[in-house]
Amino acid sequence: MIEIRNLTVSVDNRTILNDVELHVSRGETVALFGPNGSGKTSLLYAIIGIPKYTVESGTILFNGQDITKLSIDERARLGIGMAFQRPPAVRGVKLNHILELCLAQRGVTDSADINNCIHELQLSDLRNRDVNLGFSGGEVKRSELVQLLAQNPDFMMFDEPDSGVDLVSIQAVGRIINQLLEKEIMARRRTKAALIISHAGHILDHVNADRAYVMLHGTMYCAGNPGDILDDIREKGYEGCITCKK
Ligand SMILES: Nc1ncnc2c1ncn2[C@@H]1O[C@H](COP(=O)(O)OP(=O)(O)OP(=O)(O)O)[C@@H](O)[C@H]1O
Ligand SMILES: [Mg+2]
């Protein structure tokens, strides 16, 4: 579904991603690990098309179509969506309003899924508040998820959906991500795919990932089994990925 070839990205003339290769197939869930400042969020920004993240070379293909030069709204309309690590607060726009707009855009009149999700994520009290304004860290993460459900994109990117989320809420977050990704049906029948950034891998206790990548200094160093990679990072640190020959 997503294929990234030799992607080099700069911000303000500083290279932050260098020759990145990555692919995610339909039905797959792929994890992305890496230390602070390694370029994980920047990669997601480049995929969604945030203008400041200038593609210097390389291509991003979505379902075979080159989207490298498309605007952020064109990419969203094609079916790419993202739950942000630190989304901005939007003063004057209620969470409910965004959800209604997203559903209307898709021509969906039945809001049962959204209501169930709101209930599951305990967001009822936030529906009529300005998006993210004064939300706690965990509330922001849960609000991002319900917005993604309202958009229902085919390729979903989750930037640290587990960071700052309490032990009980993370189970609900996991259930909603599994629902978004159609995990209840066989992989080959699924229409969705995902890229999930996580530091400690807590979300992967609840959402099964098929593969994982490790990013260091803006470059992909490794791809493999998520559990094995996490064990190796715990044992040898991220720098072990540079010398590891696996
Ligand atoms: N808009 C920007 N302006 C200047 N530098 C930026 C910008 N965006 C990213 N960078 C730099 O690029 C590097 C990668 O940042 P990025 O946010 O992608 O890291 P990350 O891997 O997501 O880290 P974390 O795990 O802490 O979230 C950092 O050194 C960061 O300071
Ligand atoms: Mg980040």
What does this structure look like?
It is a single chain. The chain has helices at 40-48, 72-78, 95-105, 112-120, 137-151, 169-180, 226-236, 240-243; strands at 2-11, 14-24, 29-33, 54-62, 65-66, 80-83, 90-94, 130-131, 155-159, 193-197, 211-216, 219-224. By secondary structure, the protein is an alpha/beta fold. The chain has one domain: P-loop containing nucleotide triphosphate hydrolases (Rossmann fold). It has a six-stranded mixed beta sheet, with helices on both faces. A four-stranded antiparallel beta sheet has the order 2-1-4-5, with helices on one face. The protein has a two-stranded antiparallel ribbon with strand order 7-8. Strand 1 (2-11) and strand 2 (14-24) form a beta hairpin. Helix 3 runs parallel beside helix 5 (137-151) and helix 5 runs parallel beside helix 6. The chain is globular. The model has no long low-confidence stretch (mean pLDDT 95). Adenosine-5'-triphosphate (ATP) binds at residues 11-12, 16, 34, 36-42, 52, 85.
Give me some keywords for this one:
8 helices, binds magnesium ion, 12 strands, six-stranded mixed sheet, alpha/beta, globular, Rossmann fold, 246 residues, 32% helix, binds adenosine-5'-triphosphate, four-stranded antiparallel sheet, single chain, 28% strand
